[in-house]
Specification:
By secondary structure, the chain is mostly helical. The protein has 9 helices and 3 strands; from the N terminus they run αββααβαααααα. It is 47% helix and 7% strand.
């Protein structure tokens, strides 16, 4: 999918709400924080305008795409605006650790109700994120080693469409036997995230039978 279309879908996603991130402009008018988000926003709006130009009626391909993306006007984003900071502050902006898909899954407690310790839940959230991307790439016909990392909103949507990934990982985790002396029956050889999409008591057949 072209980058503009991915950006368009992201900014129109119901899950993309105001999260408190700021737009920071320095005293010289330069962008300290917003360059990448702003570029994505511009690409999304350009894609919307391109589709509008080819909108020949409700049954046209462009109209169907606009409806699919949920476009009801110009693409916008709510953000807090901070102006007048020192131009040198860009050197220390946005240098924190990037939030991973595993971090997001843990924060959402996707394994809630499974009676897992916080440590195990953290590990399984990271492992299912690996499995999620692996299957996502396979279904696209892409090589894992050369495939894209995948944007978090897109992978979250994929995970919701394929909940059996969680069931398979929980089964593999149980078979693995934990981290004790008799544990790590699987993870000592291969990560649970990579093992999950493979065979697990017929899970592979049941899973791919649900994939359109």
């Amino acid at each position: 999918m072209p980058r503009a279309q991915r950006s368009h879908e992201r900014w129109n996603s119901p899950s993309e709400t105001h999260n408190g991130e700021t737009v920071v402009i320095d005293s010289d008018g330069g962008i300290v924080s917003f360059a990448h988000r702003g570029a994505g926003l511009i690409l999304a709006e350009l894609e919307r305008q391109r589709l509008r130009a080819f909108d020949d009626g409700p049954d046209s391909p462009a109209a169907k795409k606009l409806k699919e993306y949920g476009c009801n006007g110009a693409i916008t984003i709510d953000a807090l605006l901070v102006e007048g900071v020192d131009p040198n502050s860009a050197d220390t902006a946005d240098i924190g650790k990037t939030r991973t898909l595993g971090d997001v899954l843990f924060r959402r407690h996707e394994f809630n109700g499974k009676e897992l310790s916080p440590g195990v839940e953290t590990r399984l959230s990271n492992e299912v994120s690996v499995a999620m991307r692996l299957v996502w790439l396979r279904l696209k016909g892409l090589q894992v080693s050369r495939g894209p990392k995948g944007e978090i909103p897109e992978l979250l949507s994929f995970g919701k469409q394929h909940p059996l990934l969680y069931d398979a990982l929980l089964h593999i985790h149980k078979v693995d036997g934990g981290s004790g002396e008799k544990g790590k029956k699987i993870s000592r050889y291969i990560s649970l995230g990579y093992r999950t999409p493979e065979r697990s008591e017929g899970w592979e057949q049941r899973y791919f039978a649900t994939v359109p």
